[in-house]
């Protein structure tokens, strides 16, 4: 019985034949799958529902503009402009809980201690590379980085919407690894998530010495995505509710 064959380009998954034996993740070529690059959000989408990432990245189905994403971009932009000194405090109405933080970042930026909105990309060895280069594997977008001194820094990420500690924990770990790879003298990183709607925060700290074991965990999750060639649907009320492919009707497996 054929269970799933949403697209002729994708091999069918057969229910009554044993699944082909998979090569262990760490023995695979890191970019041998249909999706060669990863980001924190693409890994999380893939883990929630492989078919969703297939529709977005392989089949490239158009996605309707999401209100939440548009709001997030607008808030990032207004904070970026304020921290860089292009606008004044009266533009910060939507981030009222973090006006003091925004001012601290602005002062740090004026003193040359703060980086705002940077694009970081890495190859499979975690060496910095171009955003779109032949060897680009992982990508991350930095919101604010504050250097306290040569060995210590703080990475801040603005968040709209609800707090999801598991997701933030993974992102914090990935960004810390990215920062250690980029700045070899750093020994300590505090990762902070600033939830603008509630004025809440989520923080974790990382030392360079701890990163080897964390790197292995991150690599396994990134390899799972970038070596995959089969993307079965995983319908679930929660993930289908926020999936753009349910709205467009591109997914025939959506759970209502
Ligand atoms: S609607 Fe549900 S099953 Fe379909 S792609 Fe989205 S998350 Fe997956």
UniProtKB/TrEMBL annotation:
Gene3D superfamilies membership: 3.90.320.10
Domain annotation PD-(D/E)XK endonuclease-like: ranges: 37-247
Pfam family, one: PDDEXK_1
InterPro entries: PDDEXK-like_dom_sf (IPR011604), PDDEXK_AddAB-type (IPR038726)
Name under which the protein is recorded: PD-(D/E)XK nuclease superfamily protein
């Amino acid at each position: 019985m054929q269970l799933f064959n949403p697209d002729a380009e994708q091999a069918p998954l057969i229910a009554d034949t044993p699944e082909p034996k998979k090569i262990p993740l760490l023995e695979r070529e890191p970019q041998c799958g249909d999706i060669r690059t990863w980001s924190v959000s693409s890994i999380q989408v893939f883990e929630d529902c492989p078919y969703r990432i297939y529709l977005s990245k392989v089949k490239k189905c158009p996605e309707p503009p999401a209100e939440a994403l548009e709001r997030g971009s607008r808030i990032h932009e207004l904070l970026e402009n304020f921290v860089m000194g292009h606008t004044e405090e009266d533009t910060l109405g939507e981030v009222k809980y973090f006006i003091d933080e925004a001012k601290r970042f602005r002062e740090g930026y004026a003193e040359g201690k703060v980086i705002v909105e940077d694009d970081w990309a890495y190859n499979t060895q975690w060496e910095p590379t171009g955003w779109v280069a032949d060897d680009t594997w992982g990508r991350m977008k930095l919101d604010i980085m504050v250097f306290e001194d040569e060995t210590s820094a703080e990475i801040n990420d603005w968040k709209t919407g609800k707090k999801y500690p598991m997701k933030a924990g993974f992102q914090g770990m990935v960004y810390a690894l990215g920062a250690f790879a980029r700045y070899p003298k750093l020994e300590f990183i505090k990762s902070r998530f600033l939830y603008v709607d509630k004025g809440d925060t989520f923080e974790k700290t990382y030392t360079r010495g701890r990163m080897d074991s964390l790197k292995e965990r991150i690599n396994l999750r990134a390899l799972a995505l970038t070596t995959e060639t089969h993307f079965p649907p995983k319908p679930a009320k929660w993930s289908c509710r926020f999936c753009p492919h349910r709205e467009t009707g591109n997914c025939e497996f959506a759970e209502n």
